[in-house]
Structure formats: C-alpha cells, structure tokens
Task: structure prediction
Amino acid sequence: MQDESSTRSRPADQQADGVMEVLLVVAPDPDLDPEAGERVTRRLKAEIADLDVESVRFGPSASAPDAAKGTDAVTLGAVVVALSASGGVFTALIETVRDWLVRSSARHRVSLTIDGDTIELERASDAERRDLIDAYIHRHTSS
Result:
C-alpha cells in the first residue's frame, strides 16, 4: 500500500489496469470544530491505509489555504482510494467505513462514489445499513 500525496489527472472513479478508484467524502459531525473534523478524517484515512489498497490520498481539494475562513468540512474530507477491482478489497473498504461509523458516537457521514454511483453512509439501523451496503457492493463486484 502506498500513501500518495499528489493527485492524478484522471477522474477519481476511472478504472485503469484493474485498479478502481473510490472517492470518499467525509462530512464530520457538524458540532465538531474544523480541527477535530480534520482529525477524524485523518483517522479514517489511516484505517483505510492499513487495508490492502493500492493507494490512499486526500482528494485535490483536501487542504484549505492556511488563512482560509469558513472551510467546508466536506471539501476537507475528500479521500481517494485506489484498489484492485478484483478480490475482496472493495468489501473490506466498505466494512472499514461502516465499522468506523458504528464506533463513533458522533454524527459523521461518509459518501462513497464509484463511476458516478454514490452511497451515503450515516447513522441508520444495522439492518438498513447492511441492506444498503450489500446492494452497493453487489453493483460494483458483479460482472
């Protein structure tokens, strides 16, 4: 696994050489201050980096200028994950995000986008979340 800080010129969801890119947008709990929101996003990114992914990096708008005021937490939480289109890495990514949300007592939201198909994960019953995730995984792992 590589942690890349540079951005690539191709779109976040384009597949090349069997690699799929997933755009995650983390919207931290709106009650958190921006610094705390950035910390929770970095923790999730670190958990994803521990998976067998090709790379994980902040998206092109992931950092705001030093003197910026009123930065958008959604923009600060853009993370691009490149992973093998085959195997169980995609399922592991989804499960990692789901587990991260479950462990948190805050009201974070995470949206995942592949090829223009987006799923938003937030607080929901376990059954609702499981059904949504299962359908999303099936759409992106079926041939």
